Amino acid sequence: MIHSTYIYAILVATFISWTSFILVIFKLSPFSQPALSLGLFYSSLFLAITGTFTLIFYFLRLWARKTEIHNSHLNTSLRQGILLSLMLVVGLGFQRLRILTWWDGLLLLAIILLLEFWFMSRD
C-alpha cells in the first residue's frame, strides 16, 4: 500500500511538472528575461521527464517480472528516470549552445551508462 502512495505522489508531481512546463512554453518569453525563462524551462522539463520515465520504467518492470512489488523497483526506476532525464536535458542544453555533435551525444550516453552500471553493481 505504501508503494501506491508513492506512485500517486509521483503521478501528481509529474502532472504538475508537465503543467508548469507548458505554462513556461506559452507564457514566458526567452527574450525578455533569458536567465529566468531558460532556468524554468530546463528545470520544469527535467522534473516532467523524470516523473514520466520513472512511472514508465516502474510499470515496465512490474509488467516484465510479474512478481510482487518491492522498494527496489521504485528506487531503481527513479534512478534510471533521473539519469535518462539528465542526459536529455544536458543534450538539449548542448544543442542550445550549438556544441552538440554526435560524438558528444555518444560520450554523454556512455557516461550515463557507466553511472548506471556502477549503481547496478552496488545493488
Describe the protein.
With 123 residues, the protein is an all-alpha fold. It has one domain (2-122). 85% of the residues lie in helices and 0% in strands. It has 4 helices and no strands. Helix 1 (2-27) packs antiparallel against helix 2 (34-65), helix 2 packs antiparallel against helix 3 and helix 3 runs antiparallel to helix 4. The longest helix has 32 residues, at 34-65. It is flat. The two termini are 24 Å apart.
What fraction, in percent, of the residue positions are helical? Answer: over 70%
Enumerate the spans where pLDDT stays under 50 for 5 or more consecutive residues: none
Strand content: under 5%
* Mean pLDDT over the full residue set: 91
Order of helices and strands: HHHH
Our measurement of the CA-to-CA distance between the termini, rounded to an integer number of angstroms, reads 24 Å
Rg: 17 Å
**Can you count the beta strands?**
0
SSE class: mainly alpha
